[in-house]
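Title: Prediction job returns without error message
Component: structure pipeline
Severity: low
Priority: P3
Assignee: unassigned

Description:
Job completed but the reporter wants confirmation the result is attached to the right record. Sequence as submitted:
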Amino acid sequence: VSNNLCTLQTCLTSMMGRPITMDQLRQDVGLMVEKITHVTLMFRRIKLTMHEYVCLKVIIMLNPCSSPSGT
């Protein structure tokens, strides 16, 4: 997770033309980066193929989002 945050910090600093602190990143996107990193590690662990990944993306895009309340 730390490596991914460092990479994100470098990219954002370059794009925005101003320094982004690690504290700012952790506060704003730390949980999201942690979750994405976890999902990526799970995909690697089960040796998910590119074909399977694309199928998952299509399934997700074709299924409408439902609210937690079921409405």
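Comment from assignee: result matches the submitted record. Helices lie at 2-16, 22-45, 50-62.
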